[in-house]
Amino acid sequence: MPIILAIETSSELASVALLxxxxxxxxxxxxxxxxxxxxxxxxQSVLAEAGITLxxxxxxxxxxxxxxxxxxxxxxxxxxxLAFGAALPVIPIVTLHAMAQAxxxxxxxxxxxxxxxxxxxxVYWAQYRYAGGWDTIVEPTLSTAGAIMPVGxxxxxxxxxxxxxxAFEDRIPAADRYPEVMPHAAQIARLARVAxxxxxxxxxxxxxxxxxxxxxxxxxxxxxxxGNS
Length: 229
What we know:
The protein folds into 2 domains: 4-94 and 183-206, ATPase, nucleotide binding domain (Nucleotidyltransferase, domain 5); 96-178, Nucleotidyltransferase, domain 5, CATH 3.30.420. Helix content is 32%, strand content 28%. The protein is built from 6 helices and 10 strands; from the N terminus they run βββαβαβαββββαβαα. The protein has a 5-stranded mixed β-sheet, with helices on both faces. A hairpin with a 2-residue loop joins strand 2 (14-20) and strand 3 (23-29). Helix 1 packs across helix 2 and helix 3 packs across helix 5. The longest helix is centred in the middle third of the chain and has 18 residues, at 69-86.
């Protein structure tokens, strides 16, 4: 079984996971301002616990986005640096896909709507279906929560559900909503192992974050208008 080291920094929670055989070791940090400072110590810690070096891993995986602009850049940059140094391939995993995997593990859901708060009154969302493997039903999209159009009945997950609850109250039953499910390196690692088996890897130099939005903040006028609305 390939050994996969994964990192995920697209939200307030930064995480590292090492998938070795069927055992997964994880580290987490919720200090969003210092993701870039906490990741390497967490990587070193999880490798030390497993008793292996970085070079003994088969691939490095990361949450490619969408998510925090700074966060996805941090993950990509760290993975590129580690991969260059250890001559390892890189596997980018869409954060919304990782959320769908987490939702499936938590609830057994096979039709999953992943909704991540994008701030500025919008969400990142995508829909996935599991039938022995994952199919993407709706590609990652940026829109308002009210504009989400799921295909058929779904189980929904992600903090976009709690950020904009009114958009989901009449469309998705409360029992089918898992707002606590967020991107995590554990699911990045599990999805990356599948990708690795299919030869779906990149050279470190080719890894790029997935951005769905060009702007990262509202203008002063937009913030004022939003406050007065």
